[in-house]
Amino acid sequence: MTSPVTGPFGRGLRLDDGDLVLERGELVEVTGIANLVQALTLRVLTPFGSDRFSPGYGLDVTQAFTAPTSARMVKELLKLNLVGALGSDPRVSEVRQVSFDDDPDRLAADPDAAGRARTAQITRTWNVTADLHTVADIPVTLQVNVEV
Predict the structure, then answer these.
(1) Contact between residue 29 and residue 56 where contact means Cβ atoms under 8 Å apart
(2) Residue 50: is its pLDDT beyond 60?
(3) Domains and CATH numbers, the chain
(4) Please, are residues 36 and 30 in contact by the beta-carbon 8 Å criterion?
(5) What is the DSSP string of 89-141?
(6) Could you say which of 9, 33, 74, 118 has the lowest number of CB atoms within 10 Å?
(7) pLDDT at position 64
(8) How far apart are CA 48 and CA 56, in angstroms?
(9) pLDDT tens for each residue of 116-137
(10) pTM of the model
(11) What pLDDT is recorded for position 3?
C-alpha cells in the first residue's frame, strides 16, 4: 500500500556515505524518489550475498574476477548483473540502459569523460549511469561508482 506522502517509493533513514544522518538529535528520513535512489545505490554497492538477512541482495561482481576475459567482457558481465540487481527492486519496472564512463556515447557527449575514464582504468572504478523506469511511470537516472 502506498502513502500519499511517500508514494510507491516509501521512506527510509537518510544515509551519508553509509552513516545515518542526525539533525538536532533526530534521525533524518528520506522519502519518495530520493528513497528509491538511495536504496538502489545501496543495493549496487553491497556485495552480492553479504547481507545475512537477504542473501540474494546486492551486486554480483564475482564473474568479473573469476572469468578470464577482456575488459569489454567484464563490462558486459557487470551490465547484466546491474540490470538484474536494479530490476529486482519491486519499484523498478524497467532498466532501460546501463552505461559506463568510457562508453563511446558518453565520451562524445562529455569531453572531460576521457580523463575520468583513464582514472577509472587505473583505480578499477567505473562510473555507471543507469536509466530506469519506475512502477509509477517516472524515469530515474542513477549514477554510482562501481569498484571491480
Answers:
(1) no
(2) yes
(3) 11-147 (3.10.450.40)
(4) no
(5) STTEEEEEEEEETTSHHHHHH-TTHHHHHHHHHHHTEEEEEEEEEETTS-EEE
(6) 118
(7) 72
(8) 7
(9) 556 555 567 888 999 999 999 9
(10) 0.82
(11) 59
65-91: average pLDDT: 87
- Are 93 and 133 in contact, with CB atoms under 8 Å apart? yes
Supply the angle between the helices 32-45 and 71-87 in degrees, to the nearest 10: 140
Task: Compute the radius of gyration of the chain from its Cα atoms.
Answer: 17
CB of 39 closer than 8 Å to CB of 142: no
C-beta atoms surrounding 139 within 10 Å: 10
Amino acid (1-letter code) at residue 109:
A
Any bridge partners for residue 67, and if so which?
Answer: none
Other CB atoms within a 10 A radius of the CB of residue 28 amount to 13
* Whole-angstrom distance, CA of residue 74 vs CA of residue 80: 10
